[in-house]
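Figure S4 source data
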Amino acid sequence: MRRTGMAFVLSVFVSSAASAAQAAGPIFLQSHRAVYDLTLSRANEGAQVDSLQGRMVYEFAGSPCKGYRTRFRFVTRIENGDTSRLTDLQTSNYESGDGRTFQFANTTLVNSAKTQEVAGSAEVTGSATDVRLTKPAAKTLRLEPSQFPTTHMLEIIRRAEAGESFYQTTIFDGSDDADKVMATTVVIGKPELAEKAGAQPGDPEFLSGQPSWPVSIAYFDPAERGAGLPSFRTTFRLFANGITSDLVMDYGDFSVAGKLVDLKLLDTPKCPG
């Protein structure tokens, strides 16, 4: 679930999590399209945010044999005094089923003017995450080993189902300038059934029997490990099939709440056997 960074001091790296998840048994991720209404949850004095509203649309589809595709659009309007800022972040990516390769394309518009465009690919090897950028200019980078987003989600679910409550790793998702990985610390709460987890009215009936967990993820810039506060933190309720609700994104000076208001199930490709 994220956009850049969530905080942690991390000393342990978990690699090849998709393979680990498959070794423990297959995890079914439901292809779906989720829409969240965004509102200002909290703003500290001096945050320069009087009001915020927006919408996030997240579309996920794929399978271990076909790979996973994600499309994501995050639109917010922030009001501060007499000024208004409309930000539109558009992202699409593909992650291979084995969690080793990743393709990404991100575009940011501010008040309808394009301010950033980043695209490229990445591959996890035994000792590094090799990134090849095509936009804004051709460039290659060698970063530390990491997970990609779907692999990261699979690992959280695997650990939640195993009753674990804490782990640390690194993640690369191509966000911002796509020039660094983020260190993450994940805290997983006790499981609940959907009817006790605040499932929104209109959610498909299949969620009523799904286990879910409250999850908190903090992201750190690895260069600032041990410095204290995370760059970004998010909390959400994670269902066993990968659908999320009750989203809160904490940017430090202010936080944004995302309420699941529409959910459509999509066909999930089936793998042989």
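Figure S5 source data
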Amino acid sequence: MTHFICITCGTQFPDSDQHPATCPICEDERQYIGHNGQQWTTLEAIRETHHNNFIEEEPNLIGIGTEPRFAIGQRGLLVQSDEGNVLWDCISLLDDETIKKVNELGGIDKIAISHPHFYSSMIEWSKAFDAPIVIHADNKDWVMRPDPAIEFWQGETYQLNSTMTVVRTGGHYDGSQLLHWADGADGKGVLMTGDTIYVVSDRRYVSFMYSYPNLIPLSPSAVRNIVKSIEPFAYDRIYSGWFGAVLKENAQHGVTYSAQRYIDAICL
């Protein structure tokens, strides 16, 4: 029995004798089937050819990403806290070296994930660190490997600890969520957004999409709802889901300006 992993998106599936016929996440119009068709691998095979890098993004914030690039190139963020570390978003590769390094950094108390393109091998990570996984109930149907470790929450905000809050934004998925870290950016506040709020190449601004690879925009009302969901929170910096995708300062202005620019363009 094997937990197969989709090569295109990196999602791990339940234990089975044969790989699934298809990956529902990749068949959805927000994602895609790879040019070579549906392909599968395993965690054991990835360990033979890949490794994880740890990069300090700022004090108490460590990026964890896989080299060579795997799936959509996503990376996770380990937020260190006296109240317990939080892993924001997840990657497919977990190996002994990664477990050792994460434990040296204080382990993981909780895992929270923005949306299905980052669910990856989240159950492997949860079991390795005895950490529950926080996912909005609106995304329950997109969990390909169900497990009791997953806590499906409802509502608009979920308090992880005194400085970290998960916020449901909707948009990219109905249950898309982001993480507000009040202590980040020297106390000015940080948002970790996956690609619900995507830091663009300009890196002063952001964008919002229903599908990024297939270039399907969100509606103006969906963008307004995303912006409204984060209005109560102070933040000066945004990390979206990949290394280098960082809006380093004046992020609140960047979001406000970008949202209006987006809506104006859609409504032409």
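Helices lie at 24-27, 43-49, 96-104, 122-129, 220-230, 251-266. The longest strand covers residues 51-58.
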